[in-house]
Amino acid sequence: MLSSDLHPVENMRLLRRSLVECDNVLGPRHVVATAEDHIRLITQLRAEAAGRDRRDLLQVQAEYAEFCSWLYQDSGDHLAAQYWADRAVDWSNAAGDQDLMVYVLARKSQLAGDMQAPVEAVDLADTAVRLAPPGSRLSALGAVFGGHGHALLGDERAAQHSYEQALALVSGSTVEPLGRGRWLDTAYVQAQHARSLALLGFHQAAASGFERAIGALPASYRRDRGVYLARSAASRLRTAGPEQAARAASEALSIGTATGSARIFTELAALAPFLQHWKGVPEVADFQRALDRAVLHEV
Fold first, then answer.
1. How many structural domains are present in the chain?
2. Which of 43, 82, 79, 78 is CA-nearest to residue 60?
3. Could you tell me the pTM of the whole model?
4. For the segment 116-140, what is each residue's pLDDT rounded down to a tens digit?
5. Any domain includes 202
6. How many whole angstroms separate alpha carbon 280 and alpha carbon 109?
């Protein structure tokens, strides 16, 4: 509901912030339909506006499109995520919001990585870094997602260089504390690096990296904790044994069930076959039964 006391642009920005909070608590599936309704409403408002108001509405619409892309990515619908990311690039460019356009390009690199498209991930990340203000958080964001693209290509050296670049930028005193990607911190870089290390076969380093990143997460970042636990379980299996792997996976499953995050379920589904060898271990058996129940419930 739009407030008559506020300008339509500010109204839509406030509504988007409330949806972001809802997503943090309830997960993407409870939010995405409303976000798309708001995009359609902004289209109607733009038709009735002119000048600066129309351009500002277009900028807000671009932010909504990026948010929808994220919601679909977390829900596991990558094609819908691509569609909305493309709209976000178009609208942010038309609105003249360079920082938002660069942010979306970095996010498109992340999405390409999740879709196992490493060349696309690297090229989009390189473009984001090239267009971002030098030494900025946006530049660090592009480096992070480019690092995973390099890891998907099996290029250990290039991946390490990208993560070192990102970590140096995030740790530096010149990076702006607010603005887009303000959630990008040392712990986030460590978690993404750990994911790439696991992909490259360095499971001990990956397990340590995930442990540091999980320990640094704020309590409110519950879904991120679930993703990191799920991704760490495979490395825990190889370094600490099936009991610890199953415990991490079970906690991740609980979070995934509560939030509906497909990223968590994707990681756990990939882990499950590797745990079959230890199905007689009580922790493993408990996890497998819980995963079967959760998957049946999702269906």
1. 3
2. 43
3. 0.93
4. 999 999 999 999 999 999 999 999 9
5. no
6. 40
